[in-house]
Amino acid sequence: MISLSNLKPAKGAVRKRKRVGRGPGSGNGVTAGRGSNGQKARSGYAHSRGFEGGQMPLIRRLPKRGFTNIFKKQFNIVNLGDLDKLGLAEIKIQDYFDKNLARKRGAGIKVLADGKLTHKIKIQAHQFSQAALNKIKKAGGQAIVSQGEEN
């Protein structure tokens, strides 16, 4: 019967630790399993990411392309149809996160016009698409552009 007192790993699953640099009789003496001379045989060897043995690395052979704007504003995208399903009369910034309509906390909220708006609703967000503004006004609602981070 198996109990905690007689548990052991499967046969061949555990190997003995390789003790290197312990003389020629050990089978791993002299060069300690690192082969003969060369950079890899020395202590402290560590090649950098993308190192290709002295050949010009791929990352440096390829041409640079494009531009990344580090000041680009990030937005959580929310559709009017999703807001309509909530059935709320007023939606504040915190509500998007409470109802799992937005996930990225540091980003703003942008409302797009996808879906139908069936009732009057007061919506607060950082940005609205032009089509979304038209749909909100048509339904008799109100769109409030919020400044700054309130979430």
Shape: elongated
Provide the spatial order of strands within the biggest beta sheet. 1-3-5
- Average per-residue pLDDT, rounded, comes to 91
Number of helices: 4
Low-confidence residue ranges: none
Helix content: 10-25%
**Can you tell me the CATH topology of the largest domain?**
Ribosomal Protein L15, Chain: K, domain 2
Q: How many strands in all?
A: 6
CATH classification class of the largest domain = Alpha Beta
Which H/E pattern describes the elements? Answer: HEHEHEEEHE
Radius of gyration over alpha carbons? 32 Å
- Terminal Cα span: 59 Å
* Domain module count: 2
Largest sheet: 3 strands, parallel
CATH architecture of the largest domain: Ribosomal Protein L15, Chain: K, domain 2
Kindly name the structural category. alpha/beta
Please state roughly what percent of the residues sit in beta strands, choosing from under 5%, 5-15%, 15-25%, 25-35%, 35-45% or over 45%. Answer: 5-15%
